[in-house]
What we know:
Helices cover 42% and strands 19% of the residues.
Amino acid sequence: MMNRRVFMGGVAAATVLAPRAASAQTPPTARRIGLLMATTPTAAAHIVVAFADGLRELGHVEGKNVRFEYRWAEGHRERFAEMAADLVRQPVDVLVASSQAAALAAQRATRTIPIVMVNASDPVEAGLVVSLARPGGNVTGLSEYLTREIRAKQLQLLKEALPKMSGVAVLHSAATTVGLREYEAAGQTVAVRVQVVEIRNRDDLEPAFAALARARIDALLVPADPFLFTERQRVAALAREHRLPGMYSTREYAEAGGLMSYSARFSEQFRRAAIYVDKILRGASPATLPVEAPSQYELVINVTTAKALGLTIPQSLLLRADQVIE
């Protein structure tokens, strides 16, 4: 039997790669929903499925009463400005931004069209909203506002899996908006030296991993980063090749062969974003819709990868995992 997620992911990828064919049959009165996406149609196919499913459950069906307008940055945040401006020119009735950088570009493009952000690291500090309880402008949505605690928890869990770990590399690109210095502070609490490594483009990945292996870095930590998320299959493969155990920002990395992840479920965040879109389409103002932080974080451990790396994950950690991939 075909796995539903694989099947639906294929359906989503086909849909987003051929939006004109889908929209050709859409009634002219359908409401337009713009999606400013940080990655690629393939990398985010399951996320699109979750969002569309969430809207469908609320009575908004693509091709009937709503129409999706996708823009894909493919991990390049510098593309957000023109893509956001293009969605505003359409115009769309509501704009969904898949990252903090995307939300900022959308906010610069319009102060009138409602914006629903997803996975913003700190929307108050970034100036996207006045406060979480009362956003006050045209932006609302979902935030990972508790990210400092989550970063510390990620390092703590990695330390539990690797008790002798003394040094960890935090891999990131220019696309990330996560405060990297906070990882350094978190490292001090668990007696782990943190080294920040920047990846500028896809060609940097292999040399960076080879350098980390030569430097005898004990482990890898990958924060929320649209570019690296797009390249997650290759990141996980290189980590296994160079025998680097990793803690990752989303479960998708663990599913791709990374060792472990601790985060909110990204697809669930987009399903929740559909609730905001529904309320706005029904007349609610984003100024008065409180920003929501994730209520649940999940620990996923890939024991197949652990065995390949010659690691034995403590039973106490396995028992706390929300999912063990075998």
